[in-house]
Design a protein that fits this description.
The complex is a heterodimer. Chain A is built from 14 helices and no strands. Chain A is mainly alpha-helical. Chain A has a single domain (37-303), classed as MetI-like fold (Orthogonal Bundle), CATH 1.10.3720. The two termini of chain A are 20 Å apart. Classes of the chains: A mainly alpha, B mainly alpha. At the A-B interface, helix 2, helix 4, helix 5, helix 6 and helix 7 of A face helix 1, helix 4, helix 5, helix 6 and helix 10 of B.
Chain lengths: 304, 281
């Protein structure tokens, strides 16, 4: 017994690099961002001072900031909902015993592929596909759908639609794989028992499938939210890097980057954007996780 | 009754398959057009869409080089960063997870909970504080600032812990101790070899993430010769390339094709790997 306790001290040695790395590259930058957000510091000048909440007051008075937050939420929701719908359909079909679809592995492999594509390359690709002389205009004009080419890049609704489409395109495969894994982990005997009790397909889905895949649903929701709130590459590279046309695809991170990259490099103001979005996202994500999780997870935790 | 049940199934099968085919077309067309257009001349591209490759790959490449886009250099830079990041993320992810799985020290539950919370926190938003801190340390415009943070990759530890939980054999560790192996020796010589498949899966994900990472490099790297592929991709939108569509597509294809190859070689690991992280906890 004594010997075991001596071994256990080695645990600290094993986790030490992680903790040190986290303090240097994870925690301190967060603290530093918090401190910077209370200053008027810029990259160009060496003098700076604490200005209290001024950065935050400026932010909330600035309609651009509010637009960025609204945009980010909208762009995320508009891709998340269809993503869940399609992923649910696919996962149900792929695991359905009556349909017995062939080549599930191959379909799934294809649908996941866009997720690995470099987001910046994908955005640049769609930028050139939808450019004025690009192939989309060519096809539409030649086939007579359009009398003349449209400047898609200047149409807010189309650019927003494209951002949403690209996000959806990149993520529905991953969500399908996660849902499938969760669904196949459910014991078939549960469905057999329900069938004996005369339950219908929809009832079984609601009473058995949904509650049992809840942990995975929460995981998908939280990770997608956290990723969505930091959305940058695609909206940044799809148009001019300022969320054009008319701020329609201006996201939080683009907004932060613009403050950082402004002529003065106002890192104080940029930090305040980062901090507000960081807090908003973390609070929402952790609330979702703990509120939805707790009841379900209790027995499992007690076991450990 | 039986036959109508069967025809019902057949009809729904046909509908489902048609839906799947449409979805496959949507999924593959953009990528396919990208690759095909990389082999077509700008004139061909402007004349219309084709799904068949042409023969201008080399001339597009020459145009890219003549415009000053050092694709080989960017490629090498990206490979360097991605490989080093992968090695560090996998090794330290395993090391940390092993510490949590194999030892019962005070605070390990708290540490693990903290790691789960870290997975759910948008760390990228502290990039300004990170940038300013790195410039104080003299690490901006250096790959160290891109590579070293993966020592503390919460996602890797999370995955590694799920994996180690499923393969952990306490007897092997005890046997190692009886043989007089050090604790670190047990980790290196007994645990890591058993954990190879899991490390491989982790490695693919770490590699792809590092390869595709645009934002951090974009903020931290400033000298042109240190640009990574995603940063070069971003410069392709500039005026220099205005009407060189073939060359632009080639630049994009060069950054995407390596990942496609990796995917087709290892898709089994990847697909299984995605499910592993989420389903167990």
């Amino acid at each position: 017994m004594k010997k075991k306790i001596r071994h256990d001290q080695y645990g600290y040695l094993f986790v030490a690099p992680f903790i040190i790395g986290f303090l240097i590259f994870g925690l301190y930058p967060v603290v530093n961002t918090i401190v910077l957000s209370f200053t008027d510091r810029t990259l160009m000048s060496s003098t700076w001072s604490f200005i209290g909440l001024k950065n935050f007051q400026n932010l909330f008075a600035d309609s651009t900031f509010v637009t960025a937050i609204t945009n980010t939420w909208e762009l995320w929701l508009m891709n998340f909902i269809p993503q869940m719908v399609i992923a649910f359909l696919l996962a149900i079909w792929f695991t359905n015993n009556r349909l017995k679809l062939k080549g599930v592995g191959v379909w799934r492999m294809i649908f996941y592929m866009p997720n690995l594509m470099m987001a910046s390359a994908v955005a640049a690709l769609f930028f050139s596909l939808f450019s004025f002389y690009g192939p989309v205009n060519q096809v539409l004009v030649r086939s007579g759908f359009l009398p003349e080419a449209i400047d898609f890049i200047r149409k807010p609704a189309i650019m927003r639609g494209l951002v949403v489409f690209i996000q959806w395109w990149m993520w529905f495969g991953q969500t399908t794989i996660l849902l499938m894994a969760a669904m196949t982990a459910i014991s078939p005997s549960l469905y057999e028992a329900a069938l004996v009790d005369g339950a219908g397909t929809f009832q079984m889905f609601r009473m058995i499938t949904l509650p049992l895949i809840k942990p995975v649903l929460i995981y998908i929701l939280v990770t997608s939210l956290v990723g969505g709130m930091q959305m940058f590459d695609i909206p940044y590279l799809l148009t001019d890097g300022r969320g054009s046309p008319g701020n329609s695809i201006l996201t939080n991170t683009i907004n932060m980057y613009m403050k950082f990259h402004s002529s003065k490099g106002h890192i104080g103001a940029a930090s305040s954007v980062g901090l507000v979005v960081f807090l908003m996202t973390s609070v929402v994500a952790l609330l979702i996780f703990f509120l939805l999780r707790e009841k379900h997870d209790q027995p499992a935790k007690a076991e450990r | 009754m039986r036959t109508s049940y069967r025809t019902g199934t057949i009809v729904s099968r046909i509908l489902v398959y048609s839906f799947l085919v449409i979805l496959v077309v949507i999924t593959l067309i953009p990528v396919w057009m990208l690759i095909v257009n990389a082999t077509r001349s700008t004139v061909e591209i402007q004349q219309g869409i084709s799904l068949l490759p042409s023969k201008y790959l080399v001339s597009n490449y020459k145009i890219l080089l003549s415009k000053g886009l050092d694709l080989p250099r960017g490629f090498l830079n990206s490979v360097t960063i991605a490989v080093l990041t992968t090695v560090i993320a996998v090794y330290f992810g395993m090391l940390t997870a092993y510490g949590i799985v194999a030892y019962n020290f005070k605070g390990k539950r708290t540490l693990y909970n903290m790691i789960i919370v870290l997975v759910m926190i948008p760390m990228q938003l502290s990039i300004i504080g990170f940038y300013q801190w790195m410039s104080k340390l003299g690490l901006t415009d250096s790959y160290a600032s891109l590579i070293l943070p993966s020592i503390a990759s919460a996602g890797s530890v999370f995955f590694a812990k799920q994996y180690l939980d499923s393969i952990m054999i306490q007897d092997l560790i005890d046997a190692g101790r009886i043989d007089g192996a050090t604790e670190l020796g047990i980790f290196h010589r007994i645990m890591l070899p058993i954990a190879k498949p899991g490390m491989f899966t982790m490695g693919i994900f770490a590699f792809v993430a590092a390869w595709n990472n645009f934002f951090n490099a974009f903020i931290l790297i400033s000298s042109r010769q240190k640009y990574t592929l995603p940063m070069l991709v971003q410069t392709l939108r500039g005026d220099v390339y205005r009407h060189e569509y073939g060359a632009i597509y080639l630049g994009l294809a060069a950054s995407v094709v390596p990942i496609i190859i990796i995917y087709f070689l290892f898709s089994r690991y990847i697909v299984n790997g995605i499910s592993m992280g989420a389903v167990k906890e």
